[in-house]
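User: For my dataset I need records formatted as: sequence, then structure tokens, nothing else. Please produce one.
Assistant:
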Amino acid sequence: MRKDVRILLVGEPKVGKTSLIMSLVSEEFPNVVPYRAEEITIPADVTPERVPTHIVDYSEAEQTDEQLYQEISKASVICIVYSVNDKKSTEKVTSHWIPLINERIDKDSRVPLILVGNKSDLVEHSSMETLLPIMNKYTEIETCVECSAKNLKNISELFYYAQKAVLHPTGPLYCPEQKEMRPACVQALTRIFKVSDLDNDGILNDYELTFFQRTCFNTPLAPQALEDVKNVVRKNLTDGLRDNGLTLKGFLFLHTLFIQRGRHETTWAVLRRFGYDDDLELHQDLLFSQLKIPPDCTTELNHNAYLFLQSVFDKHDKDRDCALSPEELMDLFNVFPYIPWGLDVNNTVCTNDQGWITYQGYLSQWTLTTYLDVQRCLEYLGYLGYSIIAEQESETSAITVTRDKKIDLQKKQTQRNVFRCNVFGGIGSGKSGFLQAFLGRNLMHQRAIREEHKSYYAISTAHVYGQEKYLLLHEVFPDFDFLSETDLACDIVCLIYDVSNPCSFESCARIFKQYFMDSKTPCMLISAKSDLPETKQQYCMTPLEFCRKHKMPPPQSFSCNTAAAPSKDIFIKLTTMAMYPAVCGEELQYPRSSRAMQHQS
């Protein structure tokens, strides 16, 4: 909402512009009227909308055209005053003032106009009938008020309507010619309805309506008031209620009624509470919350965020199969202006046999987005209405910024729940197969993946010492001439070579020596495609000797050419090494449970 309101009064000489202002301030008609009243500021605490209001007078006798143009450009609402007993001043509204104002206003900014018919004490008839065609022709006209500066009739109402036209404009909400809400308003209210429909059954039940009322107006809805609202809908709309709950049609009908009865501040209160600006766009502050991430820190979702996302999943998993079908996923994203996840997401996280994202896969994708692009995650949470439904101050309250990794190394323990493993290796070494194996897909399953849907990330959970952690695998493209800081910044490095290709290990040795030999990042060597005959590697030492020399764990055999889902043991080892980098080396100094796991594998 705007922080202040600037009201400009224009019109022909002697129509009573100055008298209107002076009558408002002094609450009596002035005996002597100057050519022009000085600018007046009404403090916020004495205005109905609690917003400071500036009232500016215009005088043709005292001001130049340039000064008028400057005032028009600064105004947030313009009152065009005419005299109800002067036909010429009425005609000038359309022949002179509206065209002049429209020429001087930026095309992208909307400045509402109010037609003010002064001197109603001098006539017995109303000018409203004459003005209706004008109001229908010019959509920027917010309303028309007849008043009398002499009798103090409708003076305070005039300035209240002017305030209201700025703070709660009708134009973006309603089309008077068609007597219906504008498409952008319908779209915004439809999203609000879907966010507020906590169980996604297509109606707002009593609990949801009460929660909605408290959210928007800080007061619960009394049982009788709730019944009164339903009765209004019931009398006017056959399908406005279902199972004693308010349908979307009923919800939209109520807001149309509010607007038609001049209570559009009610609709604006709802829209603004759900993050909409004056143009019915979601506010940038909601979608792009600022969150400072210090170097060597990462971003994770906290417990409250996971609970919220779980509730979002549950309300859209209508068949209760713990997976989201394409239709259910589209329904979930219905509150977004675009589809945020591409087809590659199905190859990034776990899916069921039908290729649908599972509950675990769904949370994994959110975890991945939070880690890689927290601003995008905050935007998505904004679309879902996180701060409103979870009753939090902002979307940033969903995020935990982890402490500096150097502190973890010093203390030899970490508070992180997401660990990044960058996967290196030459072309054809088996990196992609390794990533897909983490998601439970064997070689036969992987062959069905289309190249254009390939993902360079895989994320899922791994259990270490009874704790559930996320392991994020990232396949780094093998361009050894240049590796970015992102390629190097990770919790553990995975070097993969093909045991059947004699030239494959050399690239792993080169990457390690060039980038990781002197770093504190633990590294693991993977002997991929171990189901194939092993070939001697064309390098000055064997992979095992290389690992011993550089105090790395021995090479780990791996194959995804299995009948069932590939074993997850190796991914648990990687997660364990990422959690305890200070104790990694040739003798994997794990606690007993982990050593036992190593011997078993």
